[in-house]
């Protein structure tokens, strides 16, 4: 082996792990995927916020609606509904439940329960993904409908789950696809803990708006 090749190999070995990760994610398009996802989410989020503000001002007072929700539905019923939603692809925006928790007698306790249920819902989605592989029709359907998610999770693993945990992207979908590719469960358990940080940040923002 020439001295030049030895020198190049040494550089590759000596390169810090985080730099190798950065190069890998840059090369495979991870950063571009995040950027595109954020751009796609930006205007819908802005539109939703503006729509909510207009609805609150001209149609129906949201605080009254949340108060009515608190008085009409039991805490158990709301929490069970939320858990099911967070397990099945995140069908209902968690922000609605975060706002609901502000109107309850124990908002901190309830927001903690919501964060925990969201986290557990993601873990359940992981096992749903694993179980779906045993059903040919379901596996074929998901592999077609979620081909891009499966491909991305295969490439980026934990970082994609982290994105699902922190950003306004369905956490359950990230965990479901992680299960389908048999991504290590212990990694999902660890990275998914960032879901609690998301709820803390969103709760701080929403609690400052909801009376």
From TrEMBL:
Keywords, in A-Z order: Membrane, Transmembrane, Transmembrane helix
Domain of life: Bacteria
Stretch forming the signal peptide: none
VTT domain residues: 108-201
Key word Heme present: no
The keyword Transmembrane is assigned to this record: yes
Transmembrane segments: 41-59, 79-100, 107-128, 156-176, 188-207
This protein's name: Short-chain dehydrogenase
Organism of derivation: Tenacibaculum singaporense
Species lineage: Bacteria, Pseudomonadati, Bacteroidota, Flavobacteriia, Flavobacteriales
């Amino acid at each position: 082996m020439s001295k030049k090749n030895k020198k190049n190999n040494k550089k590759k070995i000596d390169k810090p792990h985080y730099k190798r990760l950065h190069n890998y994610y840059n090369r495979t398009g991870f950063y571009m995927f995040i950027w595109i996802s954020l751009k796609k989410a930006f205007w819908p989020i802005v539109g939703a916020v503006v729509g909510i503000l207009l609805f609150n001002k001209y149609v129906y007072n949201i605080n009254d609606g949340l108060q009515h929700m608190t008085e009409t539905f039991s805490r158990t019923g709301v929490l069970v509904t939320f858990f099911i939603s967070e397990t099945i692809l995140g069908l209902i925006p968690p922000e609605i439940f975060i706002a609901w928790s502000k109107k309850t007698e124990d908002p901190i306790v309830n927001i903690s329960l919501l964060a925990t249920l969201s986290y557990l819902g993601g873990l359940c989605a992981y096992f749903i993904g694993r179980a779906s592989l045993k059903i040919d029709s379901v596996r074929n359907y998901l592999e077609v409908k979620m081909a891009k998610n499966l491909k991305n999770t295969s490439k980026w693993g934990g970082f994609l789950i982290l994105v699902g945990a922190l950003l306004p992207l369905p956490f359950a979908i990230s965990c479901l696809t992680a299960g389908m590719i048999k991504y290590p469960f212990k990694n999902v358990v660890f990275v998914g803990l960032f879901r609690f940080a998301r709820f803390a940040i969103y709760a701080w923002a929403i609690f400052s708006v909801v009376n």
